Amino acid sequence: MTRDHRHVSAGLLPAPATTRARVTEAHELFRTVTDGSLSTVYPALATADPDLFGLSLVSTAGGVVAAGDAGVPFAIMSVAKPFVFALACELRGIESVRRRVGVNATGMPFSSTVPVERDARGRTNPMVNPGAIATTSLVGGASTEERWELVHAALSGFAGRDLVLDEEILHSARTTNHRNRGLANMLAAVGALDGEAADAVEVYTRQSCLSVTTTDLAVMGATLADGGTNPVTGRRVVDAETAHATLAVMTVAGMYETSGDWLFDVGMPGKSGIAGGIVTVSPGKGALATFSPLLDDAGNSVRGQLATRHLARRLGLDILASEVAPQAARAESPESGEPRPPLRRPSSSRAHSPVRRSTVSSSAAREIDPVPSLRHPAEVRVTDSLPSVAEAAALAVPVSEGADPPGDLGTDAAQLAVLGFTGAAHQVVVLPDPAGRALVALGVGAAASVDTTVVRDLAATFARAVPRQTTLAVELPGADLAVPPADFAQAVVEGVLLARWRFFVGAGGDEPTLTALTLVAPPELVDDVRAGAARGEVVARAAMISRDLSNCPATTLSAERMGEVATELAPMAGLEVELFDRAQLEEMGCGGILGVNRGSVEEPRLIKLSYRPDSPVGHLGLVGKGIMYDSGGISLKPSDESHAQMKNDMTGAAAILGAMTALRDLGCRASVTAYLCCTDNMPSGSAMKLGDVLRMRNGTTVEVLNTDAEGRLVMADGLCLAVEDGVDAVVDVATLTGACLRTFGVDVAGVMGNDASLVARLREAGAVADEPVWELPLHRPYREQLVSTIADMTNMGGANAGSITAALFLEEFVDGVSWAHVDIAGTAQQPAVRTWRNKGASGFGAKLLIELATRFESPGSPR
Does the predicted model carry a pTM greater than 0.85? Predict the structure, then answer.
């Protein structure tokens, strides 16, 4: 075995697949432990399910690995303490808080009065109850509610989402927190509190009763690990010195009187809570969080401690370790011969073999982030007043045709007319502002005819017109336009964010192109605008994920890596994910995917994503072509521009993955199940040959006449599985035929299907999303072109009508279920920048599918 010379304390986390296997292993090892008891400090805590057990690891790159009940909410309790300490340090200064509260271990239980009594000023540390109450009092605010707003905003910033109170736990805590009220009175008597004791206890009680998940805690800890920047949202929550101070007090006293034993065994700062949560932080690497409500005598989760001790060395998290972690080293060493751990077993599968590890992807390729747009997103704000120049270096002001421009533009219609600007649709002019801000007039045309497409395009044009400014603002007009304020705001956010998106590997690639976007709305419209902006942010994020993946080099984004990305994104989007490897696909009879994969040294993956809302109004299936790189196989493509673009032959799968991440946040009411059929198509001695016969999932045999007609082969298996899943309708998305490109060019996708109403829904969705589709006839007499003399059918028709014969091939696998096929071969690649569209792989389809899914209902569903 080649020795790995990196020391754990200065190394990196293992590869995502290895990390996931270790976390899953820890969950399996300790989920049956029954030692410990439920907390009785508050009556509501004693009703917790003792079998709950979740693990989540979040890296400083924003990757999430979760196992078990990582998405189950519980009360944060004392795990809030270090984060409120960080807030107090930001507001009052680190040294001021240190002098007032203290930072040394007490060696006593978390609610003991002894440490308060033995210090003349009542100093303890911020991790035990008296010190935490004192810390909360230092946050400030003119009232209890103001102080609570500060605490709530800070904890939500650490978590990367708006946290809510668990009202049942809060009521239980308020009625039984007599000891904390006594501690606060003791502190007030020696001058250790700012403000009234009752106010401090009330805010402290609320902060303890915020509802979080295991993954929320891991994100919060990873924010400290990343020097105060939330690695999921990319937003700075506290500065690096505050993060350092917080980790110091966690190290000293985070596990109360057992902190020394914890540091000895785990080697990381940690903090526990009596609801069963524990968060531990490995600076520079990430944070591990656990949740299980069975506690030991010190109030710490039993399963959580066992799992954390198990993983500290295995994942290289122990900051005190100066020896190589042998298992971590072996996990990343191809020469070791250690088999890859098995993937999560789908509920429908039988036993399967370990996944064979590919050795073709270089470490340099692995360093390319497949989804860089998620790491440092721009902050989107809504306000009713003009931001300062420091907050917005460029301001866009919409102007209707023939109307006087708003005053914030600093000019009048006559002066604009000199520049040829009349307010006609799509006109843009940039004006200097003596204050140093760029002012941009946007012509929206006649007020009564404005639509979201015009608004989206203009917002993008504005973003491109001021390329050096990274803080932008758009002033929204009043309610006199044809577009509702929420829709206007959504279109603005989509246009600006997508115009400023980029995927660049090289010098300056990590520098943000946009850090903040502010929407300025009339006061009476702020709520509507805020709702629309939030929706626009979610839709744009999904589209950017699709773009990221479609532009990522194929050597980096293998089918295996695509599965890892899906697994990383799923917990943040409320999705279930299942990965099927080659051995499982063989058992499942997915001959199309396996046939195309024959020539590759990379493993295939079938990725199943499931979104399950309460009381669904229908069940929509999505199937995506995920050819990670298409050489054509034995039917090798010519070495031309088209071949050079074949990393984007997985855009269908990318668009579906992006769309799936948006469904929960947009309140989609239908269940959605997606199948991403992922492999590359390569020539080799083992590759699929012309004349071979493949057997698809449903038993249909297919004679291969052209190995470059491979997309329909992998999609056939995905369609079969979707139909077996009982969907009400299924839509497949694929870069399928050059014929569609030649028919529609790069602006419009083709659509065909067996259900006119489903096709109509797609056309409507495309019009709203500005990802248009146009119907081609599913002319069934052309089915004769697919007749084989040795199999049920061939994979190729004649020389003409290639888009139609490809769709007719796919129809054979839907068993009469309502179905539509979207061919994005033309729209998946854009030759030039145009409004919000980028040059290169476009990620087309994510916005389209979001609109379809969020409007979808089965014919018999209640409205």
Answer: no
Q: What is the pLDDT of residues 561-612, one digit of tens each?
A: 999 999 888 888 889 999 999 999 999 999 999 999 999 999 999 999 999 9
Spell out the alpha helix ranges (H) of 254-286.
259-266
Residue holding tokens 């800890």? 221
Please say whether the dihedral angle defined by the alpha carbons of residues 534, 540, 545 and 546, taken in this order, is positive or negative.
positive
Q: How far apart are CA 117 and CA 291, in angstroms?
A: 33
- In terms of Cα–Cα distance, which of 525, 533, 437, 423 is closest to 477? 525
Q: Decide: 151 and 128 in contact? Cβ < 8 Å.
A: no
- The residues, ordered by sequence, that sit 6+ positions from 26 with a Cβ below 8 Å of its Cβ are 55, 67, 307, 310, 311
Within 10 A of 422 (CB to CB), how many other CB atoms are there? 15
Report whether 498 contacts 492 (CB < 8 A): no
Distance of CA 1 to the CA centre of its chain: 37
> How distant is the alpha carbon of residue 3 from its chain centre?
35
Instruction: Tell me the pairing of strands 286-291 and 277-282.
Output: antiparallel
Question: Cα(539)–Cα(542) distance, rounded to whole angstroms?
Answer: 5
User: Cα(595)–Cα(666) distance, rounded to whole angstroms?
Assistant: 38
Residue with tokens 């421009």: 405
Q: Which of 311, 330, 331 is nearest to 321 (CA)?
A: 311
Contact in structure between 552 and 413 (CB atoms under 8 Å): no
How far is 711 from 239, CA to CA, in rounded Å? 49
> Is residue 118 scored above 60 in pLDDT?
yes
pLDDT category, 247, cuts 50, 70, 90?
very high
State the sign of the Cα–Cα–Cα–Cα dihedral 678, 679, 680, 681: negative
- DSSP-derived 3-state class of residue 661: coil
Nearest Cα residue to 729 out of 804, 621, 569, 633 = 621
Radius of gyration over alpha carbons of the chain, in Å?
Answer: 29
Q: Sign of the CA dihedral 115, 119, 120, 125?
A: negative
Q: Give the burial string for 532-565 (b: 16+ CB within 10 Å, else e).
A: bbbbbbbbbbbbbbbbbbbbbebbbbbbbbbbbb
What is the spatial order of strands in the sheet that 516-520 belongs to?
A: 379-383, 516-520, 471-475, 394-400, 438-445, 428-432
| Parallel, antiparallel or unpaired: strands 773-775 and 693-695 | unpaired
The 8-class DSSP code of residue 636 comes to P
pLDDT tens digits, residue range 791-835?
A: 999 999 989 999 999 999 999 999 999 999 999 999 999 889 988
Strand pairing report for 793-794 and 701-703: parallel
In this predicted model, which residue has the larger pLDDT, 621 or 320? 621
